[in-house]
Structure formats: C-alpha cells, structure tokens
Amino acid sequence: MTDIFEQSLGQNAANHLPLSPISFLRRSAMVYSDKAAIIHGRIRITYSQMLDRCRRFASALSARGIGRGDAVSVLAMNTPCLLESHYGIPMAGAVLNAINTRLDAATIAFILEHSEAKMFIVDRALSAVAREALSLTTARPIVIDYDDPEYTGPGDLIGTGEYEAMLAAADPDYPVTLPEDEWQAISLNYTSGTTGNPKGVVYHHRGAYLNSVSNAFAFELNDRSTYLWTLPMFHCNGWTCTWAVTFAGATHVCLRAVDPKEIFRLIVDEQVTNMCGAPIVLNMLVHAPAAVKRSFGHTVKVATGGAAPPSAIISSMEKMGFSVSHLYGLTETYGPSTVCVWQPEWDDLDIDDRAVMMSRQGVQTVAFEDVRVFDPETFTEVPWDGQQIGEMFIRGNAVMKGYLKNPDATEAALAGGWFHTGDLAVTHPNGYIEVKDRSKDIIISGGENISSLEIEEVLYKHPDIMEAAVVARPDEKWGETPCAFVTLREEAGPVTDADVITFCQSKMARFKAPKTVIFGPLPKTSTGKIQKFVLRERVEKL
Asked: Which sign, positive or negative, has the C-alpha torsion 510, 515, 520, 525?
C-alpha cells in the first residue's frame, strides 16, 4: 500500500536542492554586501567583492576547460587566494586540493600526480619547493602564481599567469550554480598515513555544508564575529571554518604565519573574537615576551584540538582574556567531530580539575549522528565507566566519501557502517569520550600528523643504522615530537644524535624529523617484533 504522505508529494526544485557551502557566500553577499568579508593587511574585501572575485575565479577555470571531476591544487599561506579557492573552485564544479605548506617536494609531487591536478596555484613564497615538486612528477598542471601584495620576501614567479591578473580578465557575471548532486566532491585533503604515501580524503558538498553549520554553532560564530586565521586553511579546509565564517556573515582576518606579536595586534586592532589552532599556538601566546603581549577588553574564544592544553596554559590564557574549548577530529571527518561541551557545574572547579574535564574529547557535534567506543573485536559498546578501553567509531553526514583511488582502505575505514578512527578511548559515566592512545602510530606535533613509519623508513636508509623505531615523546611546546630509537651496525663509525637528525631532515620535511635520538638495542617479542609499548614507557621517564 502506498504511503499517503508520498502521494503527489515528490521532490522538485522548489522544495529540494543540493546542500553546498557555495550558497553561504551568495547569501552573505546579499545580506552583508558592504561588510568586510576578508581583511588581509591593507587589503579589505567586502562580501559583494568576494562574490565577484569568486565568480571570476570560476569563470577563469571554466575558460581553461576545468570543471567537474577536475582537481585544482593550491599551495598557499592563509591568504585571500586560498580562502577564495574554497568558493571559486567548487563554483566551477571542480575539486579543491589545499596542500600542506610544510610538505617536502617529493610529497607535493605525489599529490599533484595522484590527484591528477589540472591547475596548480602557487604562493610566491613557496615557489622553490613547488618548482622542485614539478620537476619530480609527470603531472603537468597549468601553473598560476599568487603574488601576494602583503608579502615582500623572496620567491620567484614560476607560472604561466598570475592569480589577480587571471581574475581581472575573467567574467564577473559567471553564474553561481549549485552542484547537480550534493554527494559530488568539493575538496580533496591528504592525510599522513601509516604506510608510505599519504591518502587522499574526499569531501562532499553535503558534508561540508553540514559541518560548517555545526562548527558555526559550536564556535559561537555570528555576524558580529571576527575570525583570525591562526589555523592553516589547508587543515581539513580550516576545520571547515573557511565556509563556517562566511555562513555566519562574520569577517575573515588572514594571517600568513603564526606570530604572537601580530596575533595580539590583530586582536586589538581588528577586534578579533574567535580563533582556532593547535595547543602550540596557545603555548606561543602564553610565553610571548611581555613587550609583545597586549591587553584587550573583550573575550576571545579559542578552539583547540589535539592533546588538551595543560592547566597552567589554560589558566594563563584565561588571565589574558581567552576562553579555551577543546575538540577532537580527523581529516576523515572534516575536522571537528566531537567537542567537550562545557557543563555549568564545572565552573566552580579549581584549574587543575577543570583541565581534567577539558582533556576529554566530549560528545559528537551536531553534524554527526553518533560517536561510540566499541570493543573492536566484538563490535559491542564498552561500559561507560571511564576505565575500559575500546576503539572510537564515528558515523554521520560529515564522514568522508572515502580515500581517492584506494577502495580497499575505504572499505576497511567504513566497515560495518562506522568510520574506524583507530583511536583508543574510554567513555565516562556522563557519556563523554576521552581518547587514551592512538593505534595508528601517528604522532601529532604542533597540530601536524606525522607517521612514525615514514620516519622509520628514512632512518633505515642511513648507512650506519641497523634497526629503528619511532614513538611520540610528550613535549610542552609541540604536544608531541618524534623520538627515534636506533641500533647501529657493528661496523658503524661514530654517529651522533645530531648526525641522525640532520640525515632525516635532508630526506623529508624538517618538521617530521625526530627531535630526540636514543642509541641502543631495541626490545623485541619472541618473534622479533619491536615492542613499542616498552619504548613509550622509556620515553615517559626521559
């Protein structure tokens, strides 16, 4: 029997349209036409101008034959170019690939080739590594320079055109259209994997839309907010704040590099109300010289991910006028998927006890349907006792489509109708989740994911190293840093920790290289497997 509520009540263009964050810009350009959408040094771009520029961007891509199914890679600092890429590229139906600016040339080359990038937009400050990457790959994208007028440092123009000139020559009346299907890809973000090359995480328009709205709610963004870009826009599309801030009709304040002096200046001069970043950003602000710090008469809300900041940092931030909240997320979940929602009864706790509560990754944001801790073998939920450890699983509309060109990894990650985080956690009696360990051997340092296996692979290339293992070492400044345990060959000559570190820095991005090297035999099981848990125990005693 036909459901009466389905009779002559079908979908059409009046009541069902694809969800896409593209629509945020169109609305804000109408409602907040003359309001500053982007502040970048001396540059002020209104919402109507931002829409105009993004339409020109889409027009320029279309004129070059770039559209649905095509990736456009952007290697740029937190600038108007990268922010506008989040709208102009999907307006053309194409897919944004924002590349980590700290990657080495070989990894960038892999990304360009794996994504089949049709265009590569390069910040002049990063032209040297971009040029090297292009020399290492068979990919031949159109190369466009971004010559940021606020940047006066070194760097060549390596492309066949320049971003601003490309926009100036394009059509400002290019039609703004939503994707045909909200499941259509909107962005491609590469995450550090535990084996070899990084995996390409594919986002869809629907997930980007919903997580943006969710984060606007979680971060308390509205049309009176001013958001400072201390978080890299390439990190999960800036935790989708590239879209969330526009959704709220707030103002984006660009910042090319994290500099405490400039952060304090912008908070005061631009009346910044919100910012996000790894714990290292908080640490830098707390320990900034007195001459750099500036007082301000309003509260700045700060969202931080990764390891929860220690109580001393939280206390110092509060004294300076910051309100800190803690969240958890992964590249595969568009950034934030849980947040430690503050409970009123925690207000009266002392700072150490409040820090304990804040260390919990909390509960799912409104974009997600469920976050649970299961026994990975039985797939049954662990007791809510804060003691029994299981694996954290997530499901919801802001989980990735999957990994590009990697069906096996996609199937494994989404098996059973849940995203398998690989993170080990407990559930407290109030339902709040707390991550206890990571099962993927990923080291989170300064907000960057570093694969221990990737470092080990480099260490094994050293002519004097026979065995190697890498674990995370807790670090007050960075959260964690890589610690390498190595056994030298019997015939090896004198090798110092500095020698090993320098060797690694020459073979990979410098931030991935170990900060500590310890020489000696490695603990092993009877089958010869290195016991990393023993190494982690040793690190705790250093």
From this structure: negative
Token pair belonging to 481: 């840093």
DSSP helix/strand/coil, 355: helix
Q: Write the Ramachandran bin of 72: left for phi over 0, alpha for psi from -120 to 50, otherwise beta.
A: beta
* CATH number for 504: 3.30.300.30
Q: How many CA atoms lie within 13 A of 273 on its CB side?
A: 13
Low-confidence residues in the chain, pLDDT < 50: 193-195, 526-527
Tokens of 250: 């707030």
- Contact at 8 Å (CB) between 92 and 62? yes
Listed residues 162, 177, 192: the one ending a domain? 177
- Answer yes or no: are the C-beta atoms of 27 and 176 closer than 8 Å: no
**Secondary structure string (H, E, C) spanning 157-204:** CCCCEEHHHHHHCCCCCCCCCCCCCCCCEEEEEEECCCCCCCEEEEEE
Contact of 208 with 334, CB cutoff 8 Å: yes
Q: How many Å apart are CA 75 and CA 82, to the nearest integer?
A: 8
Q: Is 272 left (phi over 0), alpha (psi -120 to 50) or beta?
A: beta
Pair 132, 106: CB distance under 8 Å: no
Q: Alpha-carbon Rg of the chain, whole angstroms?
A: 24
Q: Where residue 100 sits, what CATH number does that domain have? A: 3.40.50.980
Q: Give the largest Cα separation in the chain, rounded.
A: 83
Separation of first and last alpha carbons in the chain: 71
Closest alpha carbon to 123 in 93, 64, 95, 83: 83
* Dist CA 20 CA 397 (whole Å): 13
Angle between helices 205-218 and 22-31 (to 10 degrees): 50
Q: Is 293 helix (H, G, I), strand (E, B) or coil?
A: coil
pTM, rounded to two decimals: 0.87
> CA-CA distances (angstroms) from residue 82 to 26, 72, 195, 204, 308?
18, 11, 29, 19, 29
Of 470, 456, 446, the residue nearest 518 (C-alpha): 470
- Nearest alpha-carbon partner for 398 in 12, 19, 75: 19
pLDDT of amino acid 75: 98
The CA distances from residue 79 to 122, 146, 275, in Å, are: 12, 10, 15
Please list, in sequence order, all residues whose beta carbon lies within 8 angstroms of the beta carbon of residue 8, skipping any fewer than 6 positions away. none
- Residue written as token pair 């049709």: 118
Encoded tokens for 313? 């940092």
Instruction: Give pLDDT, residue 498.
Output: 95
Task: Judge contact between 61 and 73, C-beta under 8 A.
Answer: no
- State phi, psi for 217 to the nearest 5 degrees: -70, -50
- Residue 457 confidence (pLDDT): 78
Domain holding 157, by residue range, is 38-177
Structural domain total, the chain: 2
d(CA 244, CA 504): 38
